[in-house]
Amino acid sequence: MPELVFFSGTMDCGKSTLALQIEHNRSARGLQGMIFTRDDRAGEGKLSSRLGLVTDAVEVADDQDLYAHLVHHLSQGGRADYVIADEAQFLAPGQIDQLARVVDDLGVDVFAFGITTDFRSKLFPGSQRLVELADRVEVLQVEALCWCGARATHNARTIGGEMVVEGAQVVVGDVNQAEDIGYEVLCRRHHRRRMTAATARAGALSPDVLPIASA
Ligand SMILES: Nc1ncnc2c1ncn2[C@@H]1O[C@H](COP(=O)(O)OP(=O)(O)O)[C@@H](O)[C@H]1O
Ligand SMILES: Cc1cn([C@H]2C[C@H](O)[C@@H](COP(=O)(O)O)O2)c(=O)[nH]c1=O
C-alpha cells in the first residue's frame, strides 16, 4: 500500500540526508522521483544536506497545487514512482492534503521531511497537517544533542547566541551561527529556561555574587 510518511525531528538531525539516501537508493534501481522543497538554505530549487550532498528539486510556490503538478507531469509522459518533500514544515496545510491525495488517488508513496515545531515550540501549520494525515510519523534515529548532552527535542532561535522568543515563524537559517540570527537545538529543560550553550557558558564564567555587607 502506498503511504504518506512524515520523517520528523529537530533541525540538524539528518532529515535531508535521509531524503537524499531514499532518492539515491530508488533512483539506483531505475525508479524516478518527484522532489519538492521550499526555502532550502542552499537556494531555490535545491535539496541539500549538511554532509555536502545536494540535488535539484521543484521549488514549491505559495499557491502551487502539488497534486495538479503531479497529474500534469504524468499526463506529459513523465514518471513519478515516489515523491519526496523536504522542508515540509513550510508547506501550507492544503498542500499536505494534496500530497495525501497523491498517495490515495495516484498510488504513489510520499516521503515528507520536516521539523515539527518552531522556535517557540509551536507546531508549523504544515507539520500539524502532516501529523494529522500521515500513515506513519517516523522520528529520526540519529539524535541531535543539547549542549548538556541530553537528546535535543526543541529548536531555539538565537541572536548573538541568546535565545529569542519574538519574531516571524519563518526565518531561513542554520545552526552554529553564533553571530546574527541562528538556531540551536536544545532539550526541553534548557529550551524552557532559555539556556543556550553561550548563556550557560557565560553563567558558569561569571564571578560568584559577593555577600552583601550588613550595616
Ligand atoms: N562534518 C560532519 N561529519 C559527520 N557528520 C556530519 C558532519 N556535519 C554534519 N553531519 C551530520 O549531518 C547531520 C545533519 O544533516 P542534515 O540532513 O543537514 O540535517 P537536517 O536536514 O535534519 O537539518 C548532523 O546531525 C550530523 O549527524
Ligand atoms: C526552528 C525554526 C526553523 N526555521 C527554519 C530554519 C531552517 O531554514 C529550516 C530548518 O531546516 P533544517 O534542514 O531542518 O535544519 O527552518 C524557521 O523558519 N523557523 C523556526 O522557528
Automatic annotation (TrEMBL):
Q: Does the keyword Cytoplasm apply?
A: yes
Which compartments is it annotated to reside in? Cytoplasm
Q: What class of enzyme is it?
A: transferase
**Coiled coil (UniProt feature):** none
Gene Ontology MF terms: thymidine kinase activity
For this UniProt record, give its keywords in alphabetical order, as a comma-separated list. ATP-binding, Cytoplasm, DNA synthesis, Kinase, Nucleotide-binding, Transferase
The UniProt record gives the binding positions of ATP as 9-16, 86-89
List, alphabetically, the InterPro entries matched.
P-loop_NTPase, Thymidine_kinase
EC numbers: 2.7.1.21
Which Pfam families does this one have?
Answer: TK
Transmembrane spans: none
Q: Which residues are the active-site ones? A: 87
Instruction: Report which reactions are catalysed by this protein.
Output: thymidine + ATP = dTMP + ADP + H(+)
Q: Which PANTHER family match?
A: THYMIDINE KINASE (PTHR11441), THYMIDINE KINASE, CYTOSOLIC (PTHR11441:SF0)
Subunit relationships:
Homotetramer.
Annotated family: Belongs to the thymidine kinase family.
- Record-given protein name: Thymidine kinase
Name of encoding gene: tdk
